[in-house]
Amino acid sequence: MESVKTPVVIVGAGLGGIRVAENLRNGGYDGELILLGAETHPPYDRPPLSKTVLTGDEERVDLKPAEFFDEASIDLRTGARVVAVDPSAHTVTVQRDGGTEQVSYGTLILSTGLVPRRFPGTDDVAGVHVIRTVEDSLALRAAAGSATRAAVIGAGFIGCEVAASLHKLNVPVTLIEPTPSPLSGPLGSRIGEMVTRLHVEAGVDLRVGVGVEEIVAEDGRAVAVVLSDGSRVDADLVVVGIGGVPDLEYLDGSGIALADRSAGGGVACDGVGKTGVDDVYALGDCANWAGHRVEHWTHTVDAAALVASELLGHTIPHQTVPYFWSDQYGLKFQMLGSPQSDDQVHVVDDDGRKFLAYYSRDGVLTGVVGAGRVGKLMKARQFLLTPTPIATLLDA
Ligand SMILES: Cc1cc2nc3c(=O)[nH]c(=O)nc-3n(C[C@H](O)[C@H](O)[C@H](O)COP(=O)(O)OP(=O)(O)OC[C@H]3O[C@@H](n4cnc5c(N)ncnc54)[C@H](O)[C@@H]3O)c2cc1C
């Protein structure tokens, strides 16, 4: 039984937006479907931006061929930024081509992603970069061509990937991280040490346990970074990789509730993407589903399928296992399940570069993390579908 109200208006022509549109069409929705995107590009993939696009091995990777939109009768409007939502009138206000218009919706789906956090006071400083859009990636690639040294602030997944990509472009890199090791925030110190050795082996100057006090600029250009231990890193290219936040100003005054910052912020939704306001759904990086906001590609893809099935009245079995990957120094890092940094870590395979580790809590498997161990990691997926004692895997 189809319960979707027409027209469907999707705000955000990124991964979540295009996937939910496609799922609605594949599921039989044949009413009007409008996809509004603030960027001037059709939907494209972000993971390559810190990897192959940055290294110049690939250009922008579009998520669909140009003809898809006509064939699927999806009214894609690029350069169209939603600036307000009025649920009582069932309209959104869109800025496009210098003008403003109201677009009516029956069903509204929000998938507006994140904006990167910037280092305070550096918005107009040349040589300071963030990475979220294809323009960001291309600007960073161009800057790398003439850089003497890069300082990458933040050794989370994106900071680590940028460090690895700049290293591949022969730019000397200093990677700065306030926690004791790269990725130790999400994955804990044991795996952090294993990631450390990859960066060190590559010759990256890794500074851990220190923050950044200041980005020093001369004549409007970055020249150095001053760390919290007082040391100075001379760098004419600075990449700020300190995460992103949902930009939800367009929801001000709409009555669509946001989740508390302590829970990750984002649009507050239930476990299938429904907000507290009738006919309004949210998914992807900007959405907080049942108390969690997740910034992973696969999570967005799964969420898009769930929102579409919810709207179409189909029930799809929800048996997904959270999955994330990252590419660094020619190795594929993968994470399955929901490992926590304070879980018990069981390293079951380590050749000094590639590794596989299980995570457990109270004796139950919570996740699997590997580098260069694709087959073995995927074999463990089945054990994350139901609670599995860690002993089962360790004894196998
Ligand atoms: C550099 C980089 C590398 C990544 N690597 C990985 C990886 O290796 N593995 C992994 O699992 N995940 C990775 N991710 C995360 C993954 O790309 C995201 O989880 C995914 O793109 C989320 O999709 P989304 O639809 O929520 O947001 P997005 O894909 O960001 O799309 C949101 C779109 O909404 C538009 N928008 C925003 N506000 C408005 C508005 N008011 N009106 C209209 N349009 C608006 C934006 O311009 C944007 O185009 C990476 C992300 C980045 C940035």
Summarize the structure.
It is built from 10 helices and 25 strands. The protein has helices spanning 15-26, 52-55, 68-71, 134-144, 157-168, 184-187, 189-202, 297-312, 374-379, 390-395; strands at 8-11, 33-36, 75-77, 81-86, 91-96, 99-104, 107-110, 115-116, 128-129, 150-153, 173-177, 205-208, 212-218, 221-227, 232-234, 237-240, 244-245, 267-269, 280-282, 287-289, 323-328, 331-337, 344-350, 355-361, 364-371.
What keyword list fits this structure?
alpha/beta; five-stranded parallel sheet; 396 residues; single chain; Enolase-like, domain 1; 25 strands; binds flavin-adenine dinucleotide; 10 helices; FAD/NAD(P)-binding domain; globular; 22% helix
Report on the structure:
The protein has 396 residues and is an alpha/beta fold. The chain folds into 3 domains: 8-114 and 246-312, FAD/NAD(P)-binding domain (3-Layer(bba) Sandwich); 116-240, FAD/NAD(P)-binding domain, CATH 3.50.50.60; 330-395, Enolase-like, domain 1 (2-Layer Sandwich). 22% of the residues lie in helices and 30% in strands. It has helices spanning 15-26, 52-55, 68-71, 134-144, 157-168, 184-187, 189-202, 297-312, 374-379, 390-395, and strands at 8-11, 33-36, 75-77, 81-86, 91-96, 99-104, 107-110, 115-116, 128-129, 150-153, 173-177, 205-208, 212-218, 221-227, 232-234, 237-240, 244-245, 267-269, 280-282, 287-289, 323-328, 331-337, 344-350, 355-361, 364-371. It has a 5-stranded parallel beta sheet with strand order 3-2-1-7-19, covered by helices on one side. Strands 9-16-10-11-12 form a 5-stranded parallel beta sheet, covered by helices on one side. The longest helix is centred in the C-terminal third of the chain and has 16 residues, at 297-312. The protein starts with 7 loop residues before the first strand and ends with a helix. The model has no long low-confidence stretch (mean pLDDT 95). Residues 11-17, 36-39, 46-47, 49-50, 81-82, 111-113, 131-132, 158, 247, 250, 284-286, 295-298, 300, 324-326 line the site of flavin-adenine dinucleotide.
